[in-house]
Write a structure and sequence with these properties.
globular, single chain, 412 residues, 78% helix, mainly alpha
């Protein structure tokens, strides 16, 4: 069958669109584009490693609270929306950089200051711990809201075709950003109310973290699945995948916003209807397409498979109340796999650089071992797994530096 002609207004299928867009990937290899993504990815790595280490602080409530915020609020959205988004989104849209690069730099500065305030630094932990945490959350809400708004505007202004022609990754970035546009103002309002009402206490922020776990988990799934699709070969799942992402990204946060304002708990059935069912269907469609086409996977696609498995299999833990923490951890580890896979995808498809095959496979195995030890090990193995995962994240930074050096040398 002859390929459909987009110039006559008919939508090309997903594979034809991805292959057509691959021609324009070189536009995003300029320093103006990848430098911003590197800054966000580096900040995410800092927040993730610091949060992982703080989680080993035993029964210290302040450290465990910071651990939760750094992983849920900082590491995941900064890596997937800021890092992978600023690396891969311009490439998929055929542009050299986002619409508002100056706004991105301001958002990065606010988020960086927020991360610093969220870290336990000397006497700040004992004297004004809750106050500094509240200021950090306000900066987080403002910075991430600006980053999300920039993503929405970039997609709407720069999309080269019809919405039906956009790749799954672009859809995930757009929908995830729209979810943050809903979430961030509500969190900022709640934090401002708590700061103005009385002297804040860690209990207030612990309650806020618990309340926000459902929408932040949905956000992690949407962004992770989109980044995973970018690392896989072009598939023919059609428009079902963006629709499933939309079910995960929008109805849940909207319903959560209503419950958040009413002061009621987010219902369990909403997690199943707007989380488990679309997530499992999404992975099933991808598996069906990969099996039917007998696709040959590149090494960096192993990251995508890990992200999809953790994001979908984690729901088995969620069916049991005792497995809530394991489910949440599985989703976070899936986001780690998606972020690292996005880094390799950017290196290969945008920058045109390949890491040695043995290095890529070894890097994946290191992350897998860290994940297994953390999720299913004893406390000692859990600590060992957290250290391995931090090492897997840290390894990415020399890779990014190598890419930057290669680009500078190539332009010299």
């Amino acid at each position: 069958m002859a390929p459909r002609d987009r110039t006559n207004g008919r939508a090309a299928d997903h594979e034809d669109w991805v292959l057509t867009q691959a021609i324009s990937l070189g536009n995003a290899s300029r320093p103006a584009s990848w430098a911003g993504g590197a800054l966000f990815f580096g900040l995410s790595a800092l927040a993730g490693m610091a949060g992982g280490m703080l989680g080993l602080g035993g029964a210290n409530e302040s450290l465990l609270l910071r651990h939760g915020f750094l992983l849920d609020f900082y590491a995941v959205p900064l890596a997937l929306l800021g890092g992978c988004g600023r690396w891969l989104l311009p490439a998929r849209l055929g542009i050299s950089r986002p619409v508002f690069p100056a706004s991105d730099r301001v958002c990065w500065a606010m988020l960086a200051l927020s991360v610093v305030l969220m870290l336990p630094v000397g006497s700040l932990v004992s004297s004004h711990d809750a106050l500094y945490m509240g200021v950090a959350l306000l900066l987080w809400a403002a910075g991430l809201f600006g980053l999300a708004l920039g993503t929405v505007v970039t997609v709407l202004e720069e999309r080269p075709g019809r919405f039906g022609d956009l790749s799954v990754f672009v859809w995930s970035q757009l929908l995830g950003a729209m979810a943050l546009v809903i979430i961030c103002p509500l969190i900022a309002a709640e934090v401002t109310h708590d700061l103005a009402r009385a002297t804040p206490s860690p209990a207030l922020w612990q309650h806020l973290l618990t309340q926000c776990r459902a929408p932040m988990t949905a956000l992690a799934l949407v962004l992770s699945f989109g980044a995973a699709c970018e690392a896989l070969p072009p598939l023919r799942a059609g428009r079902a995948l963006p629709l499933l992402l939309a079910v995960m990204a929008l109805p849940g946060p909207v319903l959560w916003a209503h419950d958040f304002l009413e002061g009621s708990a987010y219902p369990f059935w909403s997690e199943i209807a707007f989380g488990a069912l679309p997530a499992l269907t999404f992975v099933a469609l991808l598996c069906r397409d990969m099996w039917s086409k007998r696709v040959e996977l590149e090494p960096f696609a192993l990251w995508a498979i890990g992200a999809l498995l953790l994001g979908s299999a984690g729901w088995a833990f969620r069916l049991f109340q005792s497995g809530l923490e394991d489910f949440h951890s599985a989703v976070l580890f899936g986001a780690v796999f998606a972020g690292l896979g996005g880094c390799y995808t950017w290196m290969r498809r945008v920058m045109g650089l390949d890491a040695p095959r043995w290095f890529e496979v070894g890097h994946v195995l290191l992350a897998v071992l860290g994940t297994v030890c953390t999720l299913w090990g004893s406390p000692v193995l859990g600590q060992f797994g957290a250290e391995l995962t931090s090492l897997a994240v840290l390894i990415v930074m020399p890779l990014v530096a190598w890419v930057a050096f290669s680009q500078v040398r190539g332009r010299a």
